[in-house]
Design brief:
The complex is a heterodimer of chains A (about 220) and B (about 325).
Chain A (H helix, E strand, L loop, with lengths): L1 H42 L9 H16 L2 H7 L1 H8 L5 H25 L3 H9 L4 H37 L5 H11 L3 H29 L3
Helix pairs in contact in A: 1-2, 1-5, 1-7, 1-8, 1-9, 2-5, 4-5, 5-7, 6-7, 7-8, 7-9, 8-9
Chain B lengths: L1 E12 L2 E13 L4 E5 L6 H8 L7 E6 L2 E2 L5 H9 L1 E5 L10 H11 L4 H14 L15 H13 L5 E5 L7 H18 L2 E6 L2 H7 L2 E6 L2 E7 H6 L4 H8 L8 H6 L3 E7 L5 H11 L3 E12 L2 E11 L2 H12 L4 E6 L3
Parallel strand pairs in B: 3-8, 3-9, 6-7, 7-8
Antiparallel strand pairs in B: 1-2, 1-4, 4-5, 9-10, 11-13, 11-14, 12-13
Helix pairs in contact in B: 3-4, 3-5, 4-5, 5-6
Amino acid sequence: MLDRIIEILPELNTAFFETMLMVGISLLVAILIGLPMGILLYVTDKGLFLESRPIKLVVGVIVNLIRSIPFIILLVFLIPFTKLLTSTTIGPLAASVSLSVAAIPFYARIVESAAREIDKGVIEAAVAVGASPWMIIKDIIFPEAKPGLISGLTITAISLIGYSAMAGTVGGGGIGDLAIRYGYYRYDDTVMFTTVIVLIVLVQFVQYLGDFIAKAVNKR
Amino acid sequence: MIKIENVSKVFKTKSGLVPGVDDVSLSVDKGEIYGIVGYSGAGKSTLLRCMNILERPTTGKVFIDGVELLSLAKKELREARQSMGMIFQGFYLVSSKTVFENVTFALKAAGVPKAKRKDRVLELLELVGLQDKIDDYPAQLSGGQKQRVSIARALANNPKVLLCDEATSALDPGTTKSILKLLKKINQEFGITIVIITHEMEVVKEICHRCAVMQDGRVIEEGPTYEIFANPTESLTKAFIQTVLNFELPEKLLQNCTGTLMRLQFRGDIAGDAIVSDMLQAFPVRGNILHGKVEYIGDIPLGIFIMEMTGEQSEVDKAIAYLEGRVNQLEVIQHAR
């Protein structure tokens, strides 16, 4: 059994980095697009300083639309879009496209609910002091929601690790792909178990790291 | 300094339109401390929030220092708000920022250059007595200290007006006193006009020059604090004043009294005890003071005595008539038995 693990090690190594690449890219996109989107959902809410029903409605519908499509369907559905962006449909880079699309609304909703945790009075006090919307977002909402934003990022990362396994089934690569190719198609239990253990350790590590950072930035 | 004209605020709720503030007009002079009292739900907080347009009035006009706030564009309104500080019952400090950063934020919002911020923050923290807490986070502070930080934040941009929304309601009586003292100092030293919303008449008695009583979104009574205390007309006002000038006599004492029991109120300019002794010499009656107290309302004394009078009924009646012309208020609590 040990021989088999050693034998598979180079491939496991590649797969691991592919997973990290996919999760990393989509996480980055989630921060770049999902975070502002979530903030937008929050500040356009009723009673807040940028209240706007139309914007809230449009963004909300888009987010719900993407969120309601099962990831495996989204994966297939986005093939033309992926081809347009990466000029290929296989490999971790191509898989990152649909993972990112799924990650954006996922994280946006988490950001929105993290921001909702802030006492509205704190935001009101900032409005009363004459602060601009951007300043309130940057200097009040952001630091106040930081622990929630970080634990939300942890949840997103772990979900993405799970999703990336699905991306493996359409040629995305990564640990999930390895598990399916050897464990499922070839009945190779050793590889199967090894990948499962790698995934467990990875998820535990991400969770621990996320909790640690969230706790460190929490001043409450 | 603050002028409110026919301001109404209607809230849309599931059960229909609910008036929060109903056609209120009032004005607060420069350098004045103005109190607005009422039970919760009376609309006093909404009225205060209309003064800096945290709540946009449905109808009416709000003038601050001659500027009509509702006509301002967003940016101008933000600038106007910088000249009005506000403090809250819940303090509302940013929990992820230190005391220093919390106060700095107000300066940053007003576009004060970074180099000038630090000195100003230190100055403000010294004013509120928190120089040694500069790097603490709000979670490490007591309620009174948090309110001091929020006062420093509210004063950062040298406002003309300070709005206080139940600022002492979450504090214990001792801390309330010290915060009121600080507000008084701010009013006297910097001439800042202060509006205080409260349900504690004690607060009004302590520092307000004038006050208004609100009920169901309307101002039902308004005037100089001393006048309100000395001559309340509305029953709600009387109930509020009762909370401060409380003269509950023990049940047993009331039962043992056989004479006429009366409550006398003297205004500051009359020497109460002299009138009583004159009366006792002029009429063959016996007077027995059961309870007495002098309350100082903005440095003017308001004396209240509860007295039992015994003697011939006709003489007692004459004595009462004599007193009625000389004291501010006379109320017979219990007739002779």
